[in-house]
Amino acid sequence: MVSFKSLLLAATSLVSIAQSRKVFIENDGLEALQLLIPLYGGVEVVGMSMSFGSYSAVDAVAAGYNVLKEYNMTSCIPLYLGAQQPLLQTNDTFQMHSQLFGAPVWEGGFSPDYEDSYTWDEVDYDQDTPGAIALIEAVKKYKDTDPVMIFAAGMMTTVAQALSIYPKLAEEAAGLYIMGGYIDTQYAQAVGTAIQVDINTDINLIQDPEGAQIALTAPWKELYIGGNVTNYLVPSQELYNRIIAKAGSLEAINNNTYFTALQDIVYTGNYAENNDQETLPFWDDVVSFFMTYPELITSSTNVSCAVDTSFYSPFYGNLRIWGADFAPTAGVKVGNGTLVNSIVDSQFYDTMIEVLFQDWTQYCHTGTYAPLAGY
């Protein structure tokens, strides 16, 4: 059954797009939900930049391009190349710190055996404008009418570059929403399995601590930190069953080229049989969701925050937080942020399913979407 909310949003999106909230997406790759959830909620995506991080720069851009191509959105959502390396961190220093203080399970683009899956001639993006410049131009364009939210779900390098070039970015943007910023995860890292250690390792900040410190201590109107809540929303057999039932069968999903995102989620259809990398939390998607629907945040905590940038520290690249009355006043620059502790979980899963069963292929031409025929 199609929800009233879905029909209402589809009918009004074309009229409201000129007055909608706006977001610029910066990530180290892209999955469909991170783009589609904001669009479903009436948020206009004014641009995307893809950067080095969990993947190489070319693979990250390719991921963004593939999603845009899948939903026929290459003509209305510009794609840019963001940072191709951290501000200071190199593969050598990353590996050295791992040897000194312990290695993360997931090393992303810094993995010694990483090999590109794509070449630059396989992807289409705006080659004339660097991601940081595109971000600045988007924020400046709408600062007096519809200030742009920044959704950064990979390293903070591109955001830091933009702040270095244009320091007024923070005050002219609507706010920054980040994926990362775990707290109190040492015990889980000490006693957990490899996948549990991976899930509780703050790789987005660790790969570029200096960029993260610049980004998180800028004077944003709002800084929302995904943190631990992004680890709590995970796939399950119940979710698989709901998706498969809505599609009609697992075979129907696997035989429909439009259902790439669903194929990536349900995989075998049996949660217990999926491998570790197929059962990771919905990290970036959760931040995309509460950015789009802030009213569905059920608990949050205001903190002063900074990122440890001391190389000879076991906490290099980790978020540090304080109550406002107890934050450092000298020696360490701190910012002010909001840690999201919980959201309406059921609404996240409901929205995720609704979003992936919409027909988005005419969005660039009409500004609307509609439920897929037969679903």
Characterization of this structure:
By secondary structure, the protein is α/β, with parallel strands linked by helices. The chain is built from 18 helices and eleven strands. The N and C termini lie close together (8 Å). The N terminus is likely disordered.
**CATH architecture designation:** Alpha-Beta Complex
Report the end-to-end length measured between terminal Cα atoms.
8 Å
Q: Regarding CATH, which class?
A: Alpha Beta
Instruction: Please identify the structural class as seen in this structure.
Output: alpha/beta
Query: Spans with pLDDT under 50 lasting ≥5 residues?
Result: 1-18
Count of extended strands: 11
**Largest sheet descriptor:** 9 strands, mixed
Question: What coarse outline follows from CA principal-axis ratios?
Answer: globular
Look at the structure and give the mean pLDDT: 93
Q: CATH-wise, what's the superfamily?
A: Ribonucleoside hydrolase-like
Quote the CATH topology. Answer: Inosine-uridine Nucleoside N-ribohydrolase, Chain A
Q: Helix count?
A: 18
Count of spatially separate domains = 1
Q: Calculate Rg over CA atoms.
A: 20 Å
Strand content: 5-15%
Please write the string of helix (H) and strand (E) elements: HEHEHEHHEHHEHHHHEHHHHHEEEHEHE
Can you give the helix content as a percent range?
Answer: 25-40%
Strand order of the biggest β-sheet:
3-2-1-4-5-6-9-7-8
